[in-house]
Amino acid sequence: NGRCVVAVDGPSGSGKSTVSRRLASALDAQYLDTGAMYRAVTWAVLRYGVDLSDLEGITKVAGELDLAIGTDPTAPHVRADGVDVDADIRGPEVTAAVSAVAAVPAVRQLLVGQQRALIESAGRIVVEGRDIGAVVAPDADLKVYLTASADARARRRSLETTASVDDTHADLLRRDTLDSTRAADPLQQAADAVVLDTTAMGIDEAVARLRAMVTA
Ligand code: C5P
Q: Which of 10, 38, 141, 198 could form a disulfide with 102 if both were Cys (CB 3.0 to 4.6 A apart)?
């Protein structure tokens, strides 16, 4: 069980979280959901009433936040300033605001530093996000870019929430655009990433394929 870092990037609804958690369990590795970190900072920004246009205020909240991110793939709990935020960070308010917070360079710099430290101490870990293969862990052992058609992604996401497929579709496209066009570390496919399209692929098959690539 030596060092092994797997980077999984891709847009929302691509199956990233489910596949990454299952892969981490299969590899007896830890799991890091970097999106949950951006969501927790966003939760704090909203909680402390900081305006989304107040970049200094957002940066200050991020710097002072006590963020505890769990890396157990079977129960990756998140605490922010001592509060269990597992449910709140998936809610509509945070989801609507997170892309704006994640576009602030100082926030990214801070979280990327924390992510690198977590990866370093874990040694064996599956890390999911938008910029993992390109920025956070450019020397990962395996880089995966998980994708799926916008329709398939919206259908999957709407099953996880109470929102309609149409609303989810609109929200996904809005976040895709914001996440891929921002100046700081946009969502990108690393040049050396393996691309896996899960539109017509089940979770089991995706996990099995990636597992085979790690052990190969
Ligand atoms: O993956 P998830 O949907 O939880 O990510 C929430 C948001 O966090 C994304 O829409 C993106 O704006 C941001 N994010 C990011 N970089 C990462 C992970 C997430 O900018 N590595």
A: 38
- Asked if the structure places residue 215 within a domain, the reply is no
Q: Is 158 in a helix, a strand, or coil?
A: helix
Protein residue whose Cα sits closest to atom 1 of ligand 1: 35
Q: How many residues can be counted in the chain?
A: 216
Q: Tokens at residue 2, please?
A: 């030596």
Q: Return the exposure string of 154-177: e unless at least 16 CB atoms fall within 10 Å of the residue's CB, then b.
A: bebbbeeeebeeeebbebbeebbe
For a pocket test of ligand 1, which of 9, 34, 189 has the largest count of ligand atoms closer than 8 A to its C-beta? 34
CATH number at residue 118: 3.40.50.300
Please choose, from the candidates 41, 68, 64, 66, the residue with its C-alpha nearest in 3D space to the C-alpha of residue 52. Answer: 41
Report d(CA 35, CA 27) in Å as an integer: 21
Q: What spacing in Å lies between the alpha carbon of 121 and ligand 1's midpoint?
A: 22
pLDDT digits (tens, 9 = 90+) for 72-105: 999 999 999 999 999 999 999 999 999 999 999 9
Token representation of residue 114: 């924390």
- Is the ipTM value over 0.90, yes or no? yes
Domain that holds residue 85: 4-210
How many structural domains does the chain have? Answer: 1
- Quick one: how far is CA 193 from the chain centroid? 16
* Residue 35 Cα to ligand 1 middle (Å): 4
CA atoms within 13 Å, Cβ hemisphere of 72: 5
